[in-house]
Amino acid sequence: MNYMAEATWENYDPEKQADLRIAKLLALLPSDVQTILDAGCGNGIITNKLIAKYQ
What we know:
mainly alpha
């Protein structure tokens, strides 16, 4: 993704990007994980999508 290109932002869908990141994140987590710690910064879009499954 070229962040400097105008075309990148014309069709940018933050929800779709978040869903792609969540799918990749979930693939990395062991099946017995019950809690998630959000120690990052940002708007919480990823964490908010995980709260239905994790504590």
